[in-house]
Amino acid sequence: MIPFLDPIVPYFPILAYGLVTLFVCLYGAFSSIEFGSALLLVSPWPVVDVTVVRRYLNPIWEATNVFLIFALVGTVMFFPAAIPAASVAVFPTMMTALIFFALRAMGILGLMYYGSVSEWFKYIFAIGSAGAPLLLSNVYVFILSGIAVVLPTTALASVMWFVVLVTLIFISISFFIYFAPKSPYHGDLRRVHVFSGAAYLLSSLLLSDLIPGISTLGVWVLNVLVFVLVVASLSLAEYERRLMSFVSAMLADIVLIAGLSALRYPYIAFPMVSASSVFTSPLMFEYMLLVVPFGLLITVPALIWFYSMYARAIR
Amino acid sequence: MNDMIPQFIHARAFMGMALGFHIIFALLGVGLPFMVSLLEFLGVYKKDEDYRRTARRMTFAMSVLFVTGALSGTVMSFLFSLLWPHFAALANTLVGLPFVMEGFAFMVEAVFLGIYVYSWDRLSPWKHWLCSIPLALGSFTSAFLITIVNSFMNDPQGFQMINGIATDIQPFTVMFNHATWYEVSHSILAYYLTTAAGLATLSAIFLLRPSIRREHERARYYKKITATMMTISFILATLVIVAGDLSGKYIAQYEPIKFAASESIFDTVGNAPLKLGGYISHDQVQYALELPGVLSWLAFGHSDAIVKGLNAFDQSQWPPLYIHYFLDIMVLIGFYLFLVPLAFLILYGIKRSIAFSHAMILAIVWGGPFAFLSVEMGWMFTEIGRQPYIIRGIMTTAQAVTESQDVVTFMWIFPLIYVALFIVTVGILYQHYRRPMDQVSVAHEL
User: Fold this and answer.
1) Does A106 sit within 8 Å of B82, measured CB to CB?
2) Is there a contact between B150 and B186 (Cβ–Cβ < 8 Å)?
3) Are B106 and A108 in contact (CB under 8 A)?
4) Do residue A291 and residue B97 have CB atoms under 8 angstroms apart?
5) How far apart are CA B99 and CA A21, in angstroms?
6) Which range in B166-175, B301-310, B331-340 is most confidently predicted, on average pLDDT?
7) Which of A86, A243, B297, B445 gets the highest tally of CB atoms within 10 A of its CB?
8) Alpha-carbon span B308 to B317, nearest angstrom
9) What residues of chain A lie within 8 A of the CB of B122, using their CB?
10) CA triplet A165, A171, A173: central angle to 5 degrees?
C-alpha cells in the first residue's frame, strides 16, 4: 500500500464512482453534439448543412470517443465484481448498442471520407447515432432502477429515451448556433433551440420523479439547477452570447447526469449492488489512481492545444 | 442443434471473429503512424517531396482505418466483459493497471491523430513531423499494454489464488511476467512489418499497371516507394524472426503443452525432430518433413535436449492439435517476408531492372496479404494454443463464459455488420488509392 494514500482508503469507492461519473458526463456532453448533428441532418426541414457537420466531426470525434472508453474501463476496472451479474442483465442492450455504434462508424466513414456524400450515409449515421445513446441510456436505467430493458417498456426507460433525444438536439443545436453563425438556417436553429430547451426541462422533471428511492430534496435541488442552466442557455443565445449558451446547455446535461448519479450513490445497480461491495482491491486502485494524474498531465495539455487550434481555425 | 454446442464454444467463435477482424485494423493503427512518421521524417530531412506526399497520402488511410479500428476496438473492450464476465471479474483486479494506462495511451493517439491530420497546412514541416511522434508512441504504447494483458493470460504470475479470490497481488509482476517481452516484441514488430509489406504491396500494384510503367515520372515514384518499403521490410523481417525464435524458446520452457502440440510431439524425446507441414490424423502427424534434432536445438540450444511430449500431460489439458498448421503457416510466411526483400535488395544492388521485373513485383504484391494472414495465424496460435484455459492454469474458458442466452443471436449478427463495415472501409480506400498520386488533389488527400 502507498502510505500517503492511507487516509483516503475508506473513500476509494466513492472516488472511483466519481471518476466514472465524470467520464460519463464528459461523454454525454461532448458526444451529444455529434449524435445530435446526425439527427439534425435528416430532419424534415433543413437546420444544418452537411459540410458544417463534416467540418466539426473531422478533427473532433476521435477525442470524444475516448471518454466512452474511459467510462467503460473505469466501471469494469474499479468495480470488477459487478461484472458477472450486471453483464448478463445488460447483455442484449449493450450488444444492440454496439450494432448501432457500428452503423454510426459506417455513417462517419461515408460522410467524412467518401468522395460524394450519399443520402444513404446520412441515414445510416442518423440511425446509428440515435440508437447508440438510446441503448446506452438503458444501461443507465439499469443502474438507476435495477431493471434491465432493451426497448423502453417501463415508464422510466420511456422518459429516459425522451430525455436522451431532447438532450442530443438541445446540445447539438446550441453548438451549431455557436459554430455556424453565418449558416442560412440560423433563424430556424434558434427556434428549435427554444423548443428543445423547453422539452428538455419538462422531460428532466419527469425523469427525476420516476427514479425509485432517491432523496426528494436532492431531486428538487437538481431540478432547480437544471432549470437555471437551461434558461441561461436560451437567454444567452438571445443576447448573442453563443459560446456561453452552448456551455450552459452542456452544463445542464452534466449536472443532470452527475446529480442523478450522486443521488443514486452508493448503488451501482439499485438496490442489489453497492459500490463498496463490488469494489476492486484497494492496492490495485491506488496504482490506477496514481496513473490518472500522470495520464492527465500528458493528455489534458494535448487536448487543450487541439481544441484551441480548432477554435482558432473555426474563427 | 445449438443446445448441443456448449455456450463457451459459441462465445469463442464470436470472440475469435471479433478479434480476427479487429487485429487487421489494430495492427495498421500501430504500424501506419510509425511508417507515416518515418516517411515524413525522410521527406523533411532530405527535403524530398515524394516522401512527404506519401506520408500525407497515407494520413488519409490512417484516418479512415482509425474509424474502423476504434469501432472494432470498442466492441472488443465491451466483449471482454459481456462474453467472459467471470474472466473480467478476476482479470480486472489483476491487470486493471495496464488497462487504465492503455486508456491514456489511446487518448494520446486519438488526440494527436486529430492534431496531425488537422495541422498539415497549419504548422511548419518539422513541427508537424514532431506531432507524429506522440501519435506513433501512443499507438505503440497502446499495443504494448494490451499485449501485456494477453501475456498475463499465457503466463499468470504475481498473485495467489485462495478460494477463488486473487490475493497478495504484485501488479508489476503481473504485468511483466515471463511471456511479456517475447510476446510484445514479436507481435509489435510483426505489426510494423505487416504495415511495411502492405505499403510495398500498394505501391507495387501500381507498377503492374502498363500505363504507369510507361510513364517515367510515375514509375520512378512508385519504384522509389517500393524500394524504401522493401528496405524497411528486410530490417523488420530480420527482427521479427529473431523475436519469433526467442518466443519459441520461451514457449518451450514455460508453456510446454502448447509447444508440444504446435510441433506435434507426442512422446517425450531427446534429439526431437522439427516437423514441417504434414497432416494431423488420429493424434498423429503424417507426411511431415522431419529434421532430426532441429527442434531440440531451436528450443534449448543443443540437439540432444529433451522435449516433453503431449503424453506427459493429461489429455484434458491438450490444446487442439491443429495449432501445428497455424504455426507452420506463420513461420513460412515470416521467411517469405524475409527472403523477398532480401532478394529484391540484392537484385537492386546488381541491376535495378531485374529488381523491378514482373516476377519480383508479383512476389512483392503477395507479401502484403501474406503478412496479414501471418498475423492472424499468430494470434490463432496464441489463443487456441492456450485452450482449454482462458488464464493458463487458473481459469478455463468454460468457467469464464457468460450465462446470457443471447450469445448465439449476436454471434450471427456481428459478422454481417463487420462485413458491411469492411466493404465501406475498403470501398473508401479503394476510391482514394485507385487514382495515381499525381491525379489526386490535396482536397482528396485529406
Assistant:
1) no
2) no
3) no
4) yes
5) 18
6) B331-340
7) A86
8) 14
9) 309, 313
10) 100
